[in-house]
Amino acid sequence: MVPSATPASGIAESGFRAIGTSCRLLVTDPSVLDAATAMAHDHLDQLDAAASRFRPDSEVSRLAGLAAQGPASRLVSFLLADHLRAALEMSRLTDGLVDPSVGAAVIASGYDADIDEIRASGASRGGDPVPVPGWRTIGISDANVVTVPQGMVIDLGATAKAHAADTIARQLAARFHGGFLVNLGGDIAVSGELPADGWNIGVELADGHEAQVIRSDGAAVCTSSTRLRTWTSGRSVRHHIIDPRTGASADPVWASVTCAAPSAIVANAMSTAAVVLGDEAPAWLEAKGVTARLDGAEGTVTLVNGWPDPKEDAA
User: 102 and which of 97, 108, 174, 242 could share a cystine (Cβ 3.0–4.6 Å)?
Assistant: First the structure.
């Protein structure tokens, strides 16, 4: 399931690909669209250079190269430091269910290249799970020096898109007039002035079917899915969300989980953690006070903490 936003009258939009996903920007003032799009694109280009596991010249890859030989430390950019601190905060918020130290486990599972390349190859990939060191083994100083243990590969896949959506939305509202909706591969953040009836956000299933339309009056909406970034390993199908407790793809109890929260990074962390938790997710989300829709692998729908009924038009 991937949230999407439907442009209403007077709202302009642009679309482009960056950081390996489809990106959309909606604005209430069409005159700022081109400049806002350029600003968003530039930010994502910088993020790719800092945090991509698939670029050998990225900061994350260079740190992983150092760590291959033993414990490693490296001064990183403000951008990467900001994303890493945000990821570690989400680890604390989810009791470690979202963990940026899963990189080596993600690679071992078969997600060792851009998903488009994996799909194009059609080959079986991935081996046995490897242990996850744990987010507490990552250190970051006030001077932005990151320290990791031997073998560590930092993976910000669970937080980077959402945190980027929050950051871009905030920066656009500070610089331009109007309202903004930033959609980075289904991680949606909004800022600035609201459209008259709020932002209409469509909740789509993995097959592209729009299952529901909700309205955001400022909330971020994010989805984590076990159906979109998948590949085969032998006779099994694996996906990109790793359970830090096992080092393997989380049991796909849920086809997808969509959460609403004050920020995209919190919404995405909660949806990712819910996928990892499986059957325990509804009770956990309810205890956390998170509004969510959980679509089961068999087509069931579970609503938590006031998520609108799909049969009704509701905010």
Answer: 242
Q: How far apart are CA 76 and CA 218, in angstroms?
A: 33
- Angle at CA of residue 239, ends 236 and 243, nearest 5°: 105
**From CA 225, how far away is CA 22, in angstroms rounded?**
15
CA-derived radius of gyration, the chain: 19
Task: Give every CB contact of residue 154 below 8 A, 6+ residues apart in sequence.
Answer: 60, 63, 64, 84, 100, 101, 103, 138, 146, 148
CB 24 within 8 A of CB 183: yes
Size (the chain), residues: 315
- Structural domains of the chain, ranges and CATH numbers in brackets: 2-304 (3.10.520.10)
Computed over every residue of the chain, the mean pLDDT equals 91
Own/partner long-range contacts of 203-208 (Cβ < 8 Å, ≥24 apart):
203/1, 203/3, 203/258, 203/293, 204/1, 204/2, 204/3, 204/4, 205/1, 205/255, 205/256, 205/295, 206/1, 206/2, 206/255, 206/256
With a threshold of 0.85, does the pTM exceed it? yes
Q: Which residue would you say has higher pLDDT here, 179 or 299?
A: 179
Tokens 């030989």 correspond to what residue? 69
- Write the DSSP symbol of residue 309: P
Main-chain dihedrals φ then ψ at residue 249, nearest 5 degrees: -55, 135
CA distance 221 to 209: 18
pLDDT at 227 over 90: no
What tens digit of pLDDT does each residue of 22-49 get?
A: 999 999 999 999 999 999 999 999 999 9
